[in-house]
Amino acid sequence: METIVYDAKGQEKGKIELPSFFGTEVSSILLHEITTAYLNNQRSGMHKTKTRGEVSFSGAKPWKQKGTGNARAGQKNSPLWKKGGIIFGPLPRDYYTKMSKQKKKASLSMAFSAQLQNGNIMVVDSIKLEKIKTKKVAEILKNLKVEGKKIVFAIANDADFKVASKNIKNVIVENIKNVNAYQILWADKVVLTPEAIDLIKERQSA
């Protein structure tokens, strides 16, 4: 399986043979499971409401039981009252969802395969910058005609390029060793380098 390799100016440089996992059969069920787990693991789970035992109110009876014409009331912390406690409100919890190594590896292969099938993967021979400037990254994007609301550069470690792209909206630069299936599926375009492809091949075959 081959794909075209471009240079930073958008010119074709040749072709590259992609690893076999780019042809993995895609399972929508597994990808849904993995992306849901990833999103769950981003949740802090620190939402909290106060019960009637935790709100700050006097425990005194608001008024006497009989003779006022009002309904009977024992305390102001009742959930029926303004600023009273909350009934069955959310409490801190752990949303962590465990994912096996096998599922992580399979889902990443499927994510790359799905994006390749949809024509959303581009290979660039090099994205080294002479100067760490956002303008330089914008020029590369323009030359490559990479468009979309969400662009992921899954590349080998390049701190300069990551710093220079920080101010460009919806452009994510991620080390190929850390990239996950959710990030690949999230992108409208995925930009790879030959070096990154070699590294992800080692990672997937390990």
What do these coordinates show?
This protein is α/β, with parallel strands linked by helices and 206 residues long. The protein folds into two domains: 2-44 and 98-205, Ribosomal protein L4/L1 (Ribosomal Protein L4, Chain: A); 50-89, no CATH class. It is 32% helix and 14% strand. The chain has six helices and six strands, in the order ββααβαβαβαβα. It has helices at residues 28-41, 101-117, 134-144, 159-164, 181-186, 194-205; strands at residues 2-6, 12-17, 121-124, 151-155, 171-175, 189-192. It has a six-stranded mixed β-sheet. The longest helix has 17 residues, at 101-117. It is elongated and about 95 Å long. The two termini are 21 Å apart.
* Separation of the first and last Cα atoms: 21 Å
Radius of gyration: 27 Å
**SS class:** alpha/beta
Find the CATH topology of the largest domain. Answer: Ribosomal Protein L4, Chain: A
Question: Uncertain segments of ≥5 residues (pLDDT<50)?
Answer: none
Q: What's the SSE pattern?
A: EEHHEHEHEHEH
Number of domains: 2
Shape: elongated
Beta content: 5-15%
Q: Which architecture of the largest domain does the CATH hierarchy give at level 2?
A: 3-Layer(aba) Sandwich
Taking the sheet with the most strands, its summary is:
6 strands, mixed
As a percent range, the share of helical residues equals 25-40%
The CATH superfamily title of the largest domain: Ribosomal protein L4/L1
